[in-house]
From TrEMBL:
InterPro entries in the record: Asp_de-COase-like_dom_sf, BFD-like_2Fe2S-bd_dom, BFD-like_2Fe2S-bd_dom_sf, CT_Nitrate-R-NapA-like, MoPterin_dinucl-bd_dom, Mopterin_OxRdtase, Mopterin_OxRdtase_4Fe-4S_dom, MopterinOxRdtase_cofactor_BS
Cofactor(s) listed in the protein's UniProt record: Mo-bis(molybdopterin guanine dinucleotide); [4Fe-4S] cluster
A GO biological-process term: cellular respiration
Keyword Metal-binding included in the entry's annotation: yes
4Fe-4S Mo/W bis-MGD-type domain segment(s): 17-76
Family of this protein: Belongs to the prokaryotic molybdopterin-containing oxidoreductase family. NasA/NapA/NarB subfamily.
Protein name: Nitrate reductase
Gene3D superfamilies according to UniProt: 2.40.40.20, 3.40.50.740, ADC-like domains (2.20.25.90), BFD-like [2Fe-2S]-binding domain (1.10.10.1100), Dimethylsulfoxide Reductase, domain 2 (3.40.228.10)
Length: 926
């Protein structure tokens, strides 16, 4: 089957329905999406489902992708260029904004030099946007001070690939997971972070004898169906894989012919790992039992086809590059690479992290997989661009870049499609840097984020559904992201904004009319003086990344481009030609060989001490994405993990005087935040875990980034998000409560809510929920109630119930019989069921029984209390699933789906359902 036929129905119109094939904007799986826009009497209605023909997902979507339509409203959008920081911001126009940026950039160059300007961009950009901005910065402004939030998730993998293979590439495809005999998931909660690929692995496991290993400090949802979980101590991956390398070598499991013909450097790699030559020493260092290590080593040694998928748990480390190389070393030693079902596989976090790598999105790279520190590469790129300048030294990586902003070395910064005040480590340092920067430009779709507050120029960008271009997923598959909605008001493509500033500064080479023209130029650069593998010689600039076959597409062919993996030498090539690389043993180093990299196990930087005795690990959760600017708009995604929380072991909870569900303060040398305690034995003693998503727009004090250690990998510059020394303590409060406000009225209560010492905001259907807590004793006086519920108009009807001795206050506000707000102040165990409360806001009218129940804070019948949400698609809670498991003596997740539908749509909740079944079986056994 050809991989580049024209898409037969990429965009069609039938009656009042327009159907468009596009690509999901979330994780690195790169799922194909079918978007349908229906014209109704009330306006446009958008529905989203998986694209059955897209080879990355074949119609499957996770819960985030399934709810994309919820995120397309314009209520939070920036729709016009704006000038001035938040308090003094005024609406402007594009001409003024472009002139402001261009004039300041030129002044910075004249007064301080080219390196006084910086850009911080994002894996959310399309490849065409990414290409235009890198061309402008590195080839025209003449600085390499452009980095990307992809630095935070996969730059260690980039460096490891280049050291081992000579080029940054993933040599396999998702298809390989269906043909392998063993999957090793390292530092990846795949079930939550890449659910569609995880389901693909689980389907393969059902159909054949597939052995799954999970290497993770925590017992996550990914571990539920694993054959072996290795609960490694934080930062000890190098020790583990060096131990495996030694075991394979000592027991003669090496592929000597492969090593001899296709690799260099084995002796040095073995020498550097001698301290892990005994399995007992590996067990001591990693915290994994000898028995589990022995099983893992034997299985790896004796299994011919192995896929080792590694992700953020490997990359986000001060030793991330060595961790990745230690994994790759084991595949090189055994020749388990370049074959069906056998390869190391780096899984990226963002939809276009790979596309950003193609165009040189990192500060140490040039476009088309060329190196900024290579003079011949610089000459080649400048020659192709015909640019007046070319950056001649590596630029500042993310953490160093913002430190240079704070020190005043960088005078102007342009931030595109990212929110560093939330996502960066030591995040309050980013605030300080932006506060004093002379010019901060932000391109975004959201008017109010933690970062846009510091924008001197705020530019309205196009969002998903409006922008048009390409993205590249983790298996090197280029897919079209097509527009199916009109651009709202003055929102423009990011490449267009860059081109306008470039032209305003007098630069040629940016007269692009559309994304097609940029893609063609990108493709032509990829093949410029790039000899195909068959023509490779000692003097050629060979790179696997080559889009020669796509470099002359017509506008129609580009518009109808089907998903295709690179390299693309011939647009009519078949998938099998490129689905796995290195089949001929040809690597990208000058001598054509791969390199073993000597790595040594050392302790992570900044170990714990008496003041900071615990290790903080951060990561993602199932139903949210990055800093919640999009997913936070969806009520369907809000309730799985509704509040910012912190996982900790029961023994640590006892030691620090913390109870489950109470608020705790997490503190490091860099900052502190307040989270809800979630106590369980899925995490080791001495470790805690907190999600990365919450920001200052939706919570008072939950930006975990400001707590995170800013130390970085010395090679990749990727920050250490998995190993921050912290301490915890109870966050003492006088009262807590929950407030529900009907959507459209939340602005009335928001100013008062934000004055409480702790709050978090959760989107619900028809309502907004606020969890509240304060350190001042709650008074049930009318004055204090009306400060929290300032509905003083005579049109509002109030219902109140007070018990001052028990510190209980229930208040209900109605208007014309419609529920407007409800506030409950009470001890935690007496607060009402949240799902029940939310359901009442869906009613047009309340009966007398509903009013009584609201005032009492309890449904007349509590039989509908399904418990914490597990299945977001069908709104099935934990209690309901447990009840069904017990009543029907269920022993597999398919039976739960048959009874409740839970798990029958996107499948994201299946790992948790498996966990509940296991828990019930354990209870039976006891």
């Amino acid at each position: 089957m050809n991989s580049i036929p024209l898409v037969e129905l990429h965009s069609s119109t039938a009656a009042n329905v327009k159907t468009t094939q596009t690509t999901c904007p979330y994780c690195g799986v790169g799922c194909g999406v079918t978007a349908k826009v229906t014209q109704t009497a009330l306006g446009q209605k958008v529905t989203v489902e998986g694209d059955l023909n897209h080879p990355s997902n074949y119609g499957k979507l996770c819960i985030k992708g399934s709810n994309l339509a919820d995120t397309l409203g314009l209520e939070t959008r920036v729709l016009h260029p704006m000038l001035g920081r938040k308090a003094n911001r005024i609406q402007s126009n594009w001409d003024t904004a472009i002139t402001t940026i261009a004039d300041k950039f030129q002044q910075c160059i004249d007064d301080y030099g080219r390196d006084s300007i910086a850009f911080y961009v994002s894996g959310q950009l399309l490849t065409e946007d990414y290409y235009a901005v890198n061309k402008f910065v590195k080839g025209y402004l003449g600085t390499a001070n452009i980095d990307t939030n992809s630095r935070l998730c996969m730059s260690s993998a980039v460096a490891a690939h280049k050291r081992a293979f000579g080029e940054d590439l993933v040599p396999a495809s998702y298809e390989d997971f269906e043909h392998t005999d063993m999957v090793v998931l390292v530092g990846s909660n795949t079930a939550w972070c890449h659910p569609v690929l995880y389901q693909r692995i689980m389907k393969a496991k059902e159909q054949r004898d597939l052995f799954v290993v999970v290497i993770d400090p925590r017992f996550t949802s990914t571990c539920e169906a694993a054959d072996l979980h290795l609960p490694i101590l934080p930062g000890q991956d190098v020790a583990l894989f060096n131990g495996l390398l030694q075991y394979l070598s000592k027991n003669n499991y090496a592929d000597h012919a492969f090593i001899q013909n296709y690799t260099d450097g084995l002796a040095q790699a073995l020498e550097s790992s001698t301290s892990e030559s005994e399995i007992e020493s590996v067990a001591t260092r990693t915290g994994i039992s000898v028995e589990k290590l022995q099983l893992f080593f034997e299985k790896f040694a004796q299994t011919e086809k192995i896929m080792s998928l590694f992700s953020m748990g490997v990359n986000q480390s001060s030793r991330g590059v060595d961790k990745a190389n230690s994994i790759i070393n084991c595949h090189l030693l055994t020749g388990k690479i370049g074959k069906l079902g056998a390869a190391p596989f780096s899984m990226t976090g963002q939809p276009n992290a790979m596309g950003g790598r193609e165009v040189g999105g990192l500060a140490n790279m040039l476009a088309s997989h060329m190196d900024l520190d290579n003079p011949s590469h610089r000459q080649l790129v400048q020659q192709f661009w015909q640019s007046p300048y070319i950056a001649d030294s590596v630029g500042l990586k993310a953490v160093d870049l913002f430190q240079a902003v704070e020190s005043g070395k960088i005078k102007a910064i342009w931030i595109m499609a990212t929110n560093p005040v939330v996502s960066m480590p030591d995040a309050d340092q980013i605030k300080r840097a932006l506060e004093q920067c002379e010019l901060v430009v932000v391109s975004d779709i959201c008017q109010d984020t933690d970062t846009t507050a510091y924008a001197d120029v705020l530019l309205p960008a196009l969002g998903w559904g409006e922008k048009d271009g390409t993205v590249t997923n983790s298996e090197r598959r280029i897919s079209r992201q097509r527009a199916f909605l009109d651009a709202p008001d003055e929102a423009k493509a990011d490449w267009w904004a860059i081109a306008q500033v470039a032209k305003k500064m007098g630069f040629s080479g940016f007269n692009y009319i559309n994304s097609h023209e940029i893609f063609i130029e990108h493709g032509q650069l990829s093949s410029y003086e790039n000899a195909p593998l068959a023509e490779r010689n000692e003097t050629s600039h060979f790179r696997y990344f080559n889009l020669q076959g796509l470099s002359h597409l017509t506008a129609e062919e580009y518009d109808e481009l089907a998903p295709i993996q690179w390299p693309v030498i011939d647009k009519n090539q078949v998938d099998a030609d490129v689905s796995r690389l290195f089949q001929q043993g040809e690597f990208s180093h000058a001598n054509g060989k791969a390199k073993f990299i000597a790595t040594s196990a050392i302790d992570p930087v900044n170990q714990t001490d008496q003041e900071y005795p615990l290790i903080l690990n951060t990561g993602r959760i199932r139903d949210q994405w990055h800093t919640m600017s999009r997913t936070g708009l969806s009520a369907n995604l809000a309730n799985h993990r509704a509040e910012p929380y912190c996982e900790l072991h029961p023994n640590d909870a006892l030691k620090y005087g913390i109870k489950d569900g109470e608020l705790i303060e997490v503190r490091s040398k860099w900052g502190l935040c307040v989270l809800r305690a979630q106590i369980g034995d899925n995490i080791r003693r001495g470790q805690i875990f907190a999600p990365i998503h919450w920001n200052d727009q939706v919570a008072s004090d939950a930006r975990i980034g400001k707590v995170v250690n800013p130390v970085v990998d010395a090679i990749s510059g990727e920050p250490e998000f998995k190993h921050t020394p912290v301490t915890i303590q109870p966050f003492y409060i006088q009262w807590q409560g929950v407030l529900y406000v009907r959507q459209g009225f939340e602005h009335i209560v928001q100013p008062t809510i934000q004055k409480t010492v702790w709050w978090t905001k959760v989107m619900q259907t028809k309502a907004v929920r606020f969890e509240l807590a304060d350190r001042q004793k709650f008074s049930t006086t009318t004055e204090q109630l009306k400060r929290l519920l300032p509905f003083t108009d005579e049109d509002f009807e109030w219902l109140n119930l007070e018990d001052q001795s028990a510190q209980i206050s229930h208040s209900v506000v109605l208007k014309n019989g419609v529920l407007i707000a409800s506030l409950y102040i009470a001890p935690t165990d007496l607060l009402p069921d949240r799902d029940w409360l939310a359901s009442l806001f869906k009613r047009e009218r309340l009966s007398a029984m509903h009013r009584k129940a609201l005032l009492a804070g309890q449904a007349m019948s509590m039989g509908n209390n399904d418990g914490p949400l597990v299945c977001s698609c069908f709104k099935v809670g934990k209690n309901k699933i447990i009840q069904t498991i017990k009543e029907n003596n269920i022993n597999n997740e398919k039976q739960v789906t048959a009874c409740l539908k839970a798990g029958g749509n996107c499948g994201s909740c299946l790992p948790e359902i498996r966990g509940l079944i296991k828990a019930c079986q354990t209870e039976y056994a006891e």
